[in-house]
């Protein structure tokens, strides 16, 4: 990843200056260049799973063998500001650990989330921005 294309993709996923981003699911297969682009966009380091304050967003690296995606999404929601977002990174189709798109859709819906953007980020990883649906007028 180099140039403005990764920067545009990172921006499309909602990362911006001053945000506090919690990173979950880090392992030796993550894309370090992508992580650097996200850190550049937020102008700071990604927080690890020991961070215990509220965050603006969660960067969730997820592989098929990682367990229950719905549980992971619900856990991520508990750490976020009301208008926060989750960027779910999954291995692309045909890659080890790939997650079926229907599983992502089902887990997101069950967790009360909806996809607002999907981006092919690297040769190995795709990203999906998940947000809580905007509700109608409150009474």
Task: Summarize the topology.
Elements: H1 4-12, E1 21-24, H2 32-42, E2 55-61, H3 69-77, E3 80-91, H4 101-110, E4 114-120, E5 125-131
Parallel strand pairs: 1-2, 2-3
Antiparallel strand pairs: 3-5, 4-5
Helix pairs in contact: 1-2, 3-4
Region (Disordered): 96-119
InterPro entries: DUF3052
Protein name: DUF3052 domain-containing protein
Short overview:
This protein is α/β, with parallel strands linked by helices and 139 residues long. It contains four helices and five strands, in the order H-E-H-E-H-E-H-E-E. A five-stranded mixed β-sheet has the order 1-2-3-5-4, covered by helices on one side.
Structure characterization notes:
This is DUF3052 domain-containing protein. There is one protein chain. The chain is α/β, with parallel strands linked by helices. The chain has one domain (4-131): Vaccinia Virus protein VP39 (Rossmann fold). The chain is built from 4 helices and 5 strands. A 5-stranded mixed beta sheet has the order 1-2-3-5-4, covered by helices on one side. The radius of gyration is 14 Å and the shape is globular.
